[in-house]
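Dear all,

This email documents one entry for the complex benchmark we are building for the journal club exercise. For each entry we list the sequence lines for every component of the assembly. Then comes the predicted three-dimensional structure of the complex as a token string, followed by one or two observations. Please use this as the template for your own entries, and keep the labels exactly as they appear.
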Amino acid sequence: MLNTERKPITGKRVQLMATCLCDAFYDDVAAATVQILEYLGVEVVFPEGQTCCGQPAFNGGDWVASRKVVRHTVKTFAGDEPVVVPSGSCAAMMFHGAVLEFEKENDLGEVEALGRRTWELGDFIFNGLGVKTWPGRFEATVALHRACHTRGTKSSPAATALLSSIEGVKIVEFGEGEQCCGFGGTFSVTFPNISAGMGALKLEHIRAVKPDVLVSGDMSCMMHLGGMAQQEGKPIKTMHVAQVLRDALKNAGLIKP
Amino acid sequence: MRFQQIDQFSAELKADTRAAVYDGSKKGHEKRTKLLYDEFPDPDRLRHIAGEVKQHVVENLDTYLPQVEAKLKANGVIVHWAATAEAANEAVLGIMRARGATKMVKAKTMVSEETELAHFLEKHGMEALETDLGEFIVQIDHDHPSHIVKPIIHKNRREIATSFEKNGLGAYNDDPQTITRRARNFLRHKYLEADVGLTGANFVSAESGRIVLVTNEGNSRFCLAATKCHIAMIGIEKIVPRDYDLGLFLNLLARSGTAQDLTVYTEFISGPKSPAQPDGPEEMHVIFVDNGRTEVLASECRDILRCIRCGACLNVCPVYRQASGHAYRSVYPGPVGAVLSPLLMKEKFPQKADLPKASSLCGACNEVCPVNIPIPDLLLRLRNRAKEENVPSPGTPPMGAWALLASQPTAWRASLFGGKVMNYLPTKLLPIPALRAWEAKRALPAWRGGEFRAWMKNRPKQS
């Protein structure tokens, strides 16, 4: 069962879990996250000691290795503030995966406590802060890929509502939206044929509706789909939800360019 | 490069087969979803309730099983307990021999696939004929079912027409109606000749001892119409507490499995022929089969015993759609099979320990499961078990060094900067298997390690 119960928000300070993918590849997504949170009047603290949520080893079955990383994460994100993550996948690792692998551990309570104050970015803005519409302007036809780890959570409805409230955004639905893009972390390299088969189908559906940009709340899916499209010689433009929200503000002069 | 077996199987799969599996499962999933959401205001709630009922049964099997046995006996049924597949098959053979029977007609039952009953009986000089059309085709083809409810989802009608011709069932004709008519003509005679009818059970009510069978071809009914002896081979987890619960389960099973409001035939069998029930076989046996289920019950994956074998998780699974059921080398393919099959192997678990890896953990299986089994969590538990038992896993990057790095911030930051060297290296040529597998199919984004940290630190102080 997904543990999506959340501690109510008090105060206007959050800790940012940037995710290892943003740390290594997608710095602008993390920056956009900071910018939109600050636009909403939220103070963003970035704990320097952060590394990774522990998911790669968790999914790989090496729970001993994963717990080591989770323990480090619990220590790094000490405190009471909400932890905001621009990834449904890493957020779910904190409130679901980590809890599963700590079931029999003495420090389960600490892991659960971190899970209860960890929020996926869209969920935090829409449900945590109660911001239901987004100002600014972003002229684009958007295909929104709903990342699998947000199934059963409030993240996808939140992202959909926020994006569609932006002036100029037109969301287009594409075929088999419930299907996975094929990334799946280490799955993408241990099952490369199946993973790529899944990705090819997803790209076919997305291209069929001719979006200007493919958007997701998870850069992992974008890394896989964008990387495949580029390898095929037919690149597609990919963005994180946070980047669309930030650019909408910029386009309307609501934040400095 | 060595990849996982299931991935290799998928890569070598015939395009025709993949297309047949993909189309069949996609249609099945879409029809199921439409039907459930058109007809129920909150189908998700139904799944959760059904899941709780079955979980309750699983956790209280020790009280339900004796209760069911008593009810069945009171209904005039002879009850057998089989700890293993061999014991279950021997029990069937024993019943047949005691009656001097040599011919059996068989309805579709997954547990008899598990025990390989038909092969076993044939080896002992008995005829055991599959009467479900799909299973019949599998049998004459010496093939294996590749889906729990659609055993021949991997075949197209041209292949079926060819095997009918080869088996003396008329000249080549791939018209589905002709194929069905020919099978029916052949089977009708067999029903009349048979001594014993074997079925499974979709549900057994602990309250009444009624066994419930659903089919769409009416073949289970025919199996019982002309034979004198009915044997039901049933997995011990098939119990529901009350007759009342069947309303919930029958509604969910047909919609989830075949996108029907109700299967065409639903039979409630409360025992052999009696003054109160003038039709049907004069003798009825129920063989409860364990075959590894109590080990599953004792494990942390016991939730999988809730499964009602609808196949919805196969239909929605993107990996199943790419790989087909045969990729799983098991009676139970797809997400449910990836959990159940390795568990049923007992101490031979390592032989099937790769199955739980064949998932992107997308969770679609859990979302459609009529008894809400947390399949991704169970897959993860089994991956952990495989790691603990040191089962080799081709292609899986080792995580020990990564964990060390990811729990030492200074080393982590250094590697973020150091990683920039990737932007200048011919990464495709590096002897790093994971990297090569990635780059065979996708471009690698530019390494920008540490850029965000620098931005965060150096930007003007925010007010």
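Observations: The mean pLDDT of chain A is 95. Residues 13-127 of chain A form one domain.
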